[in-house]
Specification:
This protein is of the alpha/beta class. About 45% of the residues lie in helices and about 20% in strands. The protein has one domain: 3-Layer(aba) Sandwich (Rossmann fold), CATH 3.40.50. The protein contains 5 helices and 5 strands. About 30% of the residues are buried. Keywords: Phosphoprotein.
Length: about 120
């Protein structure tokens, strides 16, 4: 079974995504902020991380930077409500699998997740 971490500070988005991917047979953990996401990543292994860029307590790009420094080469898909170019360039340099602008196309995201997780 594939494992995924979903990190987003918006309860509705986090809950909806967790339900969609759980229904697809993915084992899902969720984090409501960057610190919680990092704590999950320090103790668990994931096949994919879905990471919001703008979260409290630690921004998504800082979580990604820490992952790559560790190094954790887990595929990461980012979600962002704003396209701040400097941040987007940084996460691309650090290595992301996909980028989704909020509001995102859930069907496009599902297809990309299926591709990455091979389901």
């Amino acid at each position: 079974m594939s494992r995924m971490l979903i990190a987003d500070d918006q309860d509705g988005i986090r809950t909806m995504l967790a339900q969609v991917f759980t229904n697809m047979g993915v084992d899902v953990d969720t984090a409501q902020d960057g610190i919680s996401a990092w704590e999950f990543l320090e103790r668990e292994q994931y096949d994919l991380v879905l990471l919001d860029m703008n979260m409290p307590r630690m921004f998504g790009h800082e979580v990604l930077r820490r992952m790559r420094e560790k190094p954790l080469d887990t595929p990461v898909m980012i979600m962002t409500a704003f396209g701040e170019e400097a941040v987007i360039e940084e996460v691309r340099r650090l290595g992301i699998t996909a980028q989704f602008e909020k509001p995102f196309d859930i069907y496009g995201m599902i297809e990309k997740v299926k591709e990455v997780l091979k389901i």
